[in-house]
Amino acid sequence: MKINKLNTGIVVSAMLLMSCSSQDIMIDDFESGTFDKWKVEGDAFSSTPAKGSFPGQQDVKDFQGTYLANSFNGGDDSRGTLLSKDFTIERNYINFLLGGGMHSDTYIELIVDGKSTYITRSIVESESLLQMTWDVTKYKGKTAAIKIVDNQRGGWGHILVDNIEMSNTSKSNIMPDYTLSFDASMNYLLVPVEDQGPESSVQLSVDGQKVGVPMNIRVSQTKVDHWVPINIEAYKGKPVSLTFGHVKKTDIGFAQIKQSETFDYDYNEKYRPAYHFSPQYGWMNDPNGMVYYNGEYHLFFQSNPYGSRWANMHWGHAISSNLVKWEYKPTSLAPDSIGSIFSGSAVVDKNNTAGFGKDAIVAIYTSAGALQTQSLAYSLDKGRTFTKYEHNPVLSDPKIADFRDPKVFWHQKTNQWIMSLATSQTITFYGSKNLKQWNKLSEFGEGIGNHDGVWECPDLFPLKYNGQLKWVLLASINPGGPNGGSATQYFIGDFDGKSFNPDMTIPYPVWLDYGRDNYAGVTWNNIPDADGRRLFIGWMNNWDYANFVPTLNFRSAMTLPRELKLANNGKHVVLANYPVHELESLRSETVLLENISTDKEFVIEKLLNVNNGAYELEMEVDVLESEEFVLELQNKSKEHLDFIFDLKNETLNVDRSKSGIVDINEKFASVVSKAPLTKKDKYKIRLFIDSASSELFIDEGAVTQTNIMFPGEPYNSLLIKNKGKVLKINNIKIHKLK
3-state class of 266 per DSSP? Predict the structure, then answer.
């Protein structure tokens, strides 16, 4: 056979040309030990690439070769940029290794023909570099440059980059800036969520324009636990898109995102309370903006509408005419360019001091962005919708990192608004004539109370005691509670319109509630004088384990609304908190039991014939010469919740170690919750049980313990145990609650 040498040469040349066109092109792997291909600005990257870690940095791992770009030079507070020389995009993909912090100001950027095309951040805070890829197929032949930016100070304020190359192969399982597009025709985009999965940054755009700020959603990777809605009703007929900071090619959730006319969820899932307030769906924490106006109690609250773990802080909203039955309202405040919407308060501006309108409901809240600052929003339609003040924020202090949770009220004697603000481990008071300009009045907290954690959610208000006007200051703290994690301490004293001075006869710290699960509570503003009560509600959870309680569609509930009063526990003045009388309307059935007298044990076999886990138990105990008695709620699964009255040691203890599901977190049931209990001959006891919560009130709230629990079935029997001589229990009532 005769071979055509010319044709053979053409084939070989073509094969060589194809091979060259498919080879990877290195933009920079930094192995030259120089930044000769880059313009260097600032001091973050030093003058040459790093050999791994800088002094004071954890070990940097998973880079290639000897060198990489590392902006930790001088620590996390250094800042700077690297800008590459221009190059022509010749392959379908640009692959690179990326690590460091996740901040918005630490990123690598692709600039094509002078325009920003991709901005990518590390998807985890890590010193290990991950393989990332940009799809640049549509930019082939165009002129590009790469910019590496560290403009962030503080923890994880650095970026790691290595091995930037052009290739016809995507080498990453991670796709940054992944976009899904839809023609909006229904009310919602439904996104599947994996509750314990990592968060994805999700940006909604309409007609190519970004709407709001990015949402953090735990989009399903391996399973679907529940769904969350993104409301697109207002954009029907327009193109909408979701852009994800990153997705993995193996994730199952992105292909399942769909449009829907409705959003359905399991409201009645196990552990949903029957008569405590809980969110319709999603996460909830601190009560916010509580104000009474025109026959309605407003309850705003920290809300994540895109998942049932903490993130995306909005103000959710509900109203009630009686503090018992609540009506859900649309979300009131959403994150903006200043930051997420953290805790705050609301007032009725009866005299139009702010100029928003007479009787405007004005919300004063923390904008949590790069700094924590205080902002305003106002409502002229009875709290249904709010308009943010165009000159927000109205108060800031860049020297204080924890600068939040404003509680505001009108002080008649000094004719001004008073703001109590949490400032690290103190409370700072500010005054204003118009809610817009604020002057510092004084600061309280140094050297008094508990300082084991950050102070939060203050509240200052007057109460009468023995005909004398006293002032009470609440200060929640996390951690540092008397039984671990979150709790609310209080101080009793005097306030002259400028300074708070505590009564030093009280053995501080003292706590509003000694249980594990009453935190960040504050009181309603604008309660009518004819009512005269100081009304309170708290978040019924604890930061030690709040994200891990065994619910899915929702997380958390509020405590019962309570009336606050000053009382004497036999040793000193205390802030008593007791359920509001309106709760008696929940009683649908009452069982009266005969009085009990025992020197050892007594069992009430059945509390209710039909027990759905929602009831109230009342009794009076005559201790006589008892040293200790125990009220042990039980179910058929041998789970039990124990209330231990240790009279010898003067403590009231709650043990939930055998109460049901207790392994949600190592801190959940590792300690017995203890409260001081003044020894008396008699105690009046009131206990509320609601599916997954217990609220115990002794002597009209002089001692209170709130503790959540997760039994496999309702507790429907009561074992009474006595140590010592005869114990008498009288006037036993069991109320079934609806």
Answer: coil
Q: Which residues contact 101 (CB under 8 A, 6 or more apart)?
A: 76, 121, 122, 125, 152, 155, 156, 157, 158, 159
List 286, 544, 642, 690, catalytic entry: 286
Using one digit for the tens of pLDDT, what is the confidence trace for 36-91?
Answer: 999 999 999 999 999 999 999 999 999 999 999 999 999 999 999 999 999 999 99
- What is the distance between the alpha carbons of residues 716 and 661, in angstroms, rounded to a whole number? 17
Q: Which phi and psi (to 5°) does residue 237 adopt?
A: 90, 0
**Nearby residues of 393 by Cβ (< 8 Å), 6 or more positions away:** 338, 367, 373, 374, 375
Nearest to 147 by CA among 227, 84, 222: 84
Q: Which two tokens stand for residue 658?
A: 């055998």
Cis status, amide bond into 393, omega within 30 of 0: yes
What are the b/e assignments for 651-669, b being 16+ CB within 10 Å?
bbbbbbebbbbbeeeebbb
Q: Where are the alpha helices (DSSP H) in 114-269?
A: none
Q: Express each pLDDT in 142-201 by its tens digit.
A: 999 999 999 999 899 999 999 999 999 999 998 878 899 999 999 999 999 999 888 889
First to last CA, the chain: 97
For residue 38, the surrounding DSSP H or E stretch is strand 38-42
3-state SS record for 509-521: CEECCCCCCCEEE
Report how far residue 497's alpha carbon sits from residue 478's, in angstroms, rounded to the nearest whole number.
Answer: 28
Residue with tokens 């050999």: 51
Evaluate whether 132 touches 159 at the Cβ level (below 8 Å).
no
Kindly report the pTM of this predicted structure.
0.86
Residue 544 among the catalytic residues: no
DSSP 104-127: TTEEEEEEETTEEEEEE--SSSEE
- Whether the Cβ atoms of residue 681 and residue 626 lie closer than 8 Å to each other: no
